[in-house]
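=== RUN LOG ===
request id: a7f3
mode: sequence -> structure
chains: 1
length: 201
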Amino acid sequence: MKRLKAIWELMRLEHGVMLFVAVFVGAVVAYGGIPGDSVKLVLAFLTALFLEAGTFSLNDYFDLEIDRKNNRMDRPLVRGDVQPRTAVVVFALLFPVGVFFAFLVNLECFMIAFVTGLFAVAYDVGLKRVKQVGNIYIAYTMAVPFVFGAVAVSSDVPFVVWILAFIAFLAGWGREVMKDVMDMEGDMEEGVRSIPMYVGE
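=== RESULT ===
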């Protein structure tokens, strides 16, 4: 049970609730009601969930040392509850399945998932060290599920969906800046420059 809980924490599956809401809202607004093709909606949600879970796992793998310096005991890899190689396996299993599910929805969803996935891997591997760029990417991941849900059921993305996505983008960006404040000590040791550091200067 402890290991399952740690795997859950590694994949941040609680974020799946937010993803479901965002994808569902985007789809409902674009369709003008509950979409008739529930299979596409489910596949769109599973795409978002699998990509999120896989890339979060990979992120924790590459962040292990800096998370240790920041004493992030909320991270299962830092606590030793999950081995680093497990995080890589989770990514290797979930990421391609998520992209494949997007392909089953339609070409537009596949392109969004594929491009977002590439940026996610780039972020995990090293883009996050450029904090300003990394923060914008994370904010984008908060916004894109609304658009993804809309594209899954409609060829047009209503203006309201773009507004919702923009609000989510701003909320995500603000959250990342606050997290940078918490991680300043470890970031300084790793040579990572964040907005709070520039403000402090």
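=== NOTES ===
Residues 193-201 have pLDDT under 50 and may be disordered.
The domain at 2-200 is CATH 1.10.357.140 (Tetracycline Repressor; domain 2).
=== END ===
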